[in-house]
Sequence to fold (585 residues):
Amino acid sequence: MRYIYILTLLFFFSLAITAQEEKIYSFHSDITVDKSGMIQVKEAIRIFSKGDLFKRGITRALPLNRSDIYDNRIKMDYTVGEVLMNGNPVNFFTEKEGGHLVIYVGDRNIFLEPGFYNYEIHYKTAGQIGFFEDYDELSWNVNGVSDKMTDSVSSVVRLPEEARIISSHCYTGIMGSTDSGCFSETLEDGSFKTLVTNLPPDEMLTVSVAFTKGVVKQPAGFEPKVLSWFDKNGLAFISAIFVLLLSVYYRVTWQRYGVDPPKPVAIPQFSPPDGLSPAAVGMLHKGYFMDDLITSSIVNLSVKGYLTIEEIIEKKGLFGIRKDRVFSLTRMKNDYSKLPAEEAVILRDLFYSDDNIKLDGKYNKDVSDMMQNYRKSLNKQFKPVIDEGQNIKFHVIPWLAVILYIIILFYFINNNLLLFEVNSYALFITIPLLAILYVIYAIQIVRPGERKLHYKSNIEGLKMYLDVAEEKRMQFFNPPTVTPEKFEELLPYAIALDMEEVWGEKFEKTFLSSSMQPETYQPTWYTGTYVNAALFGHALNSTLSNTMSHSATQPSSSGGGNWSSGSFGGGFSGMGGGGGSVGGW
Fold:
């Protein structure tokens, strides 16, 4: 019978343990004010642990600065004495984290068993007393906030024997609340007692006690720094100056150097504009170099008789199901004195070892070296034209201004001045505004050079002639007939402008469809798969570009790729010192 009784007690005890919520159940703070200005605090914290939140013990975060009633920021320091758990000393250590001194109570290697635990934290701090003309005052946030309801929060403030309480208040709620949902009374011994029950999550109990002036002396080294108007509002003022001056700078420099000159009227071009090579036309049109421009240059060399292109279909794999395209290029002429510089690079470097080269998509050093020199040649010729009017020098002032603004910003951050609403709002408004203004300016300050506008206008004129959609409009300019010779002359330019398919359709429509023997065209400089003129240029561009790109790319030396994946007059809750938070670890 006795064993049944014990088992029953154990059963109901385990149910009671399971039903308990893991949280802080009570928080009591005993605050003693010394004549020296130091205050001694003893905090009694009762928790229930299940091992989820409170694994090893509790954490107590104490703010390292506070605001007085004038919004002055005062730096705080603490001396932690002893820490107890269930009346016995317990290990603890401290860390400074995010503007708080965090006390970690417990041992890293010892985990709590489920149950109730009573902690006591003893510490001293100075600089918490406010000194005014007719009285002195302690404002203290009693509890560290928690994300769960606390059943009971209470405090006792004990003053020096000579001090008499002039006024006292208690407040509850979140930061800034003036609610007084708390019980308070002055005891016979002159101490001030407060109590609140069922305090909601993230709310605190704040006490404010004004007492006889002159009894407490302010400790040396803890004089509060009285902040100026500039400290509280300076970032907003500076931000406004920065935005105003930069706006004026943007406006003036844009009007003088960024307004675009009149664009020349595009007139249809029936031959290569300004004697430019196909790759030059493609680069000027796109505004940057692309590797696939190489195809337009190879086709242009072939059309002019310097090369021949042979497409070979190699059957591979089981039963020859897979078909790989291989290109064989043969040099027919060795004189490149009259060629554009980048085409001379192809003829010289691509055939450095032999008059014939096979492009099968495998890495080839001659192809790689040629592509590097080809890129350098085009950039050297036309990058200056493309970059004309970029006006990079006008970006220096905004960059220096941003650096200066960041330096000033560090002053406000290091002195905790961003906690003032005016400074905080100014920061969140100014940063996006400066970014938006700069992006708009960076676009508007670009002023295309006259050479660039001239080239682009003539290139647009060539595109008008290549385009089938412009055919009716072209009739007013008496365009030349699209003969095979004309088709081949402008095919490299169509490839450079990504219009090879459109140009092929126009050739078929205007010449081949009217020929007595349609579909008889076959380029003499190309041997391989040929369907029709409309698809020829497009197929040649895509396959030859890919093959050339693979041949110029050195394979990786590694065995495979790796994937990486790559925080006395009025008051409110939260005023004064103390506060912080309580958690677990």
